[in-house]
Amino acid sequence: MDRGQRGEPPASGARLPAPSSESGRVLSLALGAVLVALLVLLLAGLPSGRGELRTAAPPPPDAGITPLDCQFLLARARAEGWRHLELPPGRHWDGRPLAVVAWSPADALVVIQHAPRVECGSLIDARLRDSRFNAGVGTVLRPLAASGKPIEVWISPGTWEHWAVSVVAGDPTALQRQDGIRGALRIAILTAAALLILSAGLGSIISNSSVFHGHALASGLLAIWVAELSGVAGYPSRWLLPPEWSAPLGIALLLPVVGFAARALAEECGTRHRWPNLSSGLRGAMFASLPAALLVALAPLAWLPTLSRAVEAAAAVWLLLPLGIGLYCLRGAPRTAVGVVGAVLPLCLTLASSNWDPPLISAFRAEVTAATATWMALVALLMAARRLGIERDDLSRLSRLAFTDALTGLPNRRGAMAYLEAREGNGPLRAQKWVLASLDIDHFKQINDEFGHARGDQALRLFAETLRRARRHSDLVARVGGEEFMIAMPDADLAQMQRALKTARSDLQSSETVRSLGFPLRFSAGVVEQRPGESLDDLFEQADRALYTAKRQGRSRDVLREGAGRGSDRDRDRDRDRDREDQART
Question: Residues 80, 483, 512, 581: which is the catalytic one?
């Protein structure tokens, strides 16, 4: 619970309001639309009320595949010239069980044939393959001992035909373990993307910042892309999108994900202030990536293999821009620059490596691509949260400067008025009445002239600390002028205020104060109690008049409203002139 909720006056005054953004509202609506769409799709994939799984829509006629037509698919593979691999036994098979698994892109069809047995499947829907393998298409065979007939594997071209396909044969237990690790890794990456959505969504709700709105929207697109790329959207059956949308969206969604991340990471290096034209270009490219992704998703299926290579190349080149900006900022902001380079470089290398296909990446290309993209989004979100925290700290410091007296740490006149006006509202902390005391240190000009301004500042700090100790927990103490202070007590009476002033006066004239400063501190006070219907402005005016009456009567005393009377403005001006003459004589 904060200070205001406890009824305690704020230490640094009122808080500045957060600026609103029109773009933030637009992104918030877009985020809501994406989340609603995801929810509808997830609900559509849940089991029905009768306990039966909903069946997926039948495949298009030209697909030529159902869960039972592996023979037809084998004939089609031979006729169309699919990629063909043979696993020779060497001299002969030894008769032990043998597992064969192909880890391939999500939309590829795989046929494994060892006469007379034929197995087939695809990661688009796990019902179309052996349930013992989650991350790839595989089966367990038992070749006859001394048989020299090879095991044949046929792989359809697919959208990512430029990606290498890893086909392995070996001990069933070892391969099932490796397949399980791959599947767990893919699910972990998708879980991380889902947590990104949750984190960015909570951040956007708490901070009401357009930055987090954008990250939440980009994280939602990333999660869909990761699910389709890794094949998790097809396990145990299609639960996200129809099968015919898997490959187009797996290609198209890379554009807005990279477009948003490139702009967000570049902004961390201050492109908006250093290179405003470049910042505007990145912003325009980010918004242009959305219609570009839509065009790619609606392109003919025959174009997808070429488009996949083009999109990956464009994304790799696109990421070079924030990479170069990060390297340029290494001298001025090394921590930010390292974060930007560390976020962009892994995905940039992964996308560019499809041209030379290194073995370390090619065997795990789907996992590495999804992991590096999720890593980039995670770092971008963390850096945005860090920047937002720094900006809020700056705003807090500005608020303290605007509403707090730097010397004593007390609220200044602006901060005191903001607090009192807030307590005058209709909220649960509304005060029924106030008792106000206006205080002035006696002969403070003489203290500065005789002991120096440093000792005068010390006296002001000591005076402020003494008033803090004398007040109640809910009372407000403020420095409203040079040597002028104020105490405001909510729902109190005159006796409570007089006790507090008596305690403060006793402490300031004690031997400890004299030993610390070299002289005792005395003050005059004007005390007023709020009357029904009396405004704060009138209360301040009456306290000010009572204070001048106390100073006119000889200082070092408290004067109540009754003692001050209702003098005119001319009387108050005369009192002020007389006080200035007294200070000049002393």
Answer: 483
